[in-house]
TrEMBL record:
This is VanZ-like domain-containing protein. The keyword Aminoacyl-tRNA synthetase does not apply. Pfam families: DUF2238 (PF09997). Keywords: Membrane, Transmembrane, Transmembrane helix. The keyword Thylakoid does not apply. It comes from the Bacteria. The chain crosses the membrane at residues 41-60, 72-91, 103-121, 128-148, 168-186.
Amino acid sequence: MTPRGWSRAAAFAVLVLTVAQLLVATALPDLDQFEGKAFGWRLVAYPLMMLAAPALWWLSERRSARPEPVPWGAFTLVMAPFLIDVTGNSLDLYDTLVWWDDANHFVNWLLLCSGIGLLVCRRVEPRWAVVVVVTGIGALLAVGWELGEWFAFIRHGTEIDTAYEDTLGDEALGTLGGFVAALVVARRRAQ
C-alpha cells in the first residue's frame, strides 16, 4: 500500500472506531463512564464534525483548475481528537486519571489545529501569519467546544459546581495546544 493509501486507511479507521464506540456508549448509557455525558448528542455531532474538514476541502477543491491531492493525513489529524475523547470515556480515563481531561485539551487541540493548519494555511504568508491564524482558530474552537459541553451536559449535570474553573483551564490548554500546532505548521511550511 502507498503512503497515501495508508493515510486514507488511517482516516477511515479513525472514523469507524469513533462511531463504533459512540454506538456502544449510546446503547449502554447506564455505564458509569457514559452516564450524563450526552452520548446521544455526540453520536450525531462527532461524525459531522469529523467529516466537516473533508467536505469543506472537497467543496473548495472541486472548483480548482489544479486540484491538489487529497490531504488524508490532515484529515486524520482533525479526526483523531474525537477518537481519543471517546476512547478516554470508554476506558473511564476521565474519572480515573486526574490529568486525563487536561492532557486531552492540550493534545487534542494540538492534533486538531495541526490538521486544520495544514488545510487552511497552504497559501498563507508570511509564516508569522500562520501562527496567528492557527492559534486564533484553536482559541475559537476551544471556546466553542466549552459552550457545546455546557449546553450538552454541564448546565443540568453534576459538574456544574466545578465547571467554571474547569472551563477556563480547558480553554487555556486548548489555546496553548493550538499555539504549539501553529508553530509546528509554520515550521513545516518553512521546510
